[in-house]
Amino acid sequence: MNNTDSRLTTDAARAAQVLRNGGLIGMPTETVYGLGADAGNAQAVARIFSAKRRPADHPLIVHIHRPEQIRQWARDVPTAAWQLAEAFWPGPLTMVLPRVPGVLDVVTGGLDTVALRVPSHPLALDLLARFGGGVAAPSANRHGRVSPTTAQHVRSEFGDAIDMLLDGGPCRVGIESTIVDFVDEGVRILRPGSITTQDLRRVTRRTVLDRADPTVRRPGAMTSHYAPRATVVLTTAEEALAALETSRRTGARAGLLSAYRPEHLPPDVPWLSLGAASEQQAQQLYALLRLADDLGLDVLVAVPPRDEGLGTALRDRLVRAAGLGDGRVFADCQPAAGKTR
Ligand code: TXA
Ligand code: MG
């Protein structure tokens, strides 16, 4: 696919027609780009799995246009879910709810729940309004790799495997939605995102569990996810130069990803500036992980932001990019958590 390819468009009506025909589209959302298909068409949804090379039992998020459509997909919807929909939709929040019988197994991975979200990107909303039904869409990256935050990222990864690419510019949020489900105690965060624990507590006035029960299937809970080709090494601001030196001694080409540039950074070490504000850090994170690969880095030494607010989600993504599994591993093994090794 090149720039003059007629499959690259900003026309939501054309993209809706592709969905109706059982096609596969790249679509913008405010979080990351999605790889979308008609959630009511099993063959169309199956194409998502083959294009992504995603294991068949990984459930997909169904994108809908309006909160009232929850009822077409889910049953026994708790009050807290309606409160969250009212407060945060359209927006970067996904809710896992008991599904109604008609929802396809290929969408839910055979689970008796379904994940729903109303995205806030204007082109996504336009597309969903025109299409009318639900659009199943995972992030538009190959399984385990870095999520796309521009149409170009999608094109470079999927090119001819998709029927249309809706270009909505760079994503405003830059990391995937917060995913929650509902348990007796209150709201449980399955994946942290830009809607924070505090946001969820403020709106629902319920307990918010931010460590999922280890027996529950966790989104992206395999050890390596959001991963560039370069090996990601997590460290603290204080230890960043030493970590770079360790890598460089082995002959590796190393770069640094951090909010601040250390004073004594060797001039031949590429510095990937994460930016100081956490919103900006989220917007840039995935593009910077891709840049590490474009620069041909073997090792990316990264200083994660603090574990608060949006920083929690950024740390989560970096921990997984480093192949360290979930955030608990990080808390236990990092000097950043106030320990020394
Ligand atoms: O921001 C986002 O959420 C983006 C945009 C495109 O909307 N989508 C996204 O999709 O990140 P994906 O497939 O990359 O991640 C969705 C996660 C998966 O890890 C999946 O396991 C989890 O949601 N998920 C989906 N349905 C679920 C369910 N019924 N129960 C538990 N987890 C579920
Ligand atoms: Mg994904």
Structure characterization notes:
With 341 residues, this protein is α/β, with parallel strands linked by helices. The protein has twelve helices and 15 strands. It has helices at 12-20, 42-52, 70-73, 79-88, 105-108, 122-131, 151-158, 197-204, 240-249, 278-294, 311-321, 327-333; strands at 8-9, 25-27, 34-38, 61-63, 93-98, 113-117, 135-136, 164-166, 178-183, 186-191, 207-209, 231-234, 254-258, 271-273, 299-302. The strands form two sheets. Strands 1-8-2-3-7-4-6-5-9-10-11 form an eleven-stranded mixed beta sheet, with helices on both faces. A hairpin with a 6-residue loop joins strand 2 and strand 3. Helix 1 (12-20) crosses helix 6 (122-131). Residues 327-341 have low confidence and may be disordered.
User: Could you report the average pLDDT, rounded to the nearest whole number?
Assistant: 91
Oligomer classification: single chain
> Termini distance?
49 Å
Number of helices: 12
Using DSSP, what is the number of strands? 15
Compute the CA-based radius of gyration. 20 Å
Strand content range: 15-25%
Structural class: alpha/beta
List segments where confidence is low: pLDDT < 50 over at least 5 consecutive residues. Answer: 327-341
Globular, elongated, flat, extended or rod-shaped: what is the shape? Answer: globular
Small molecules bound = threonylcarbamoyladenylate, magnesium ion
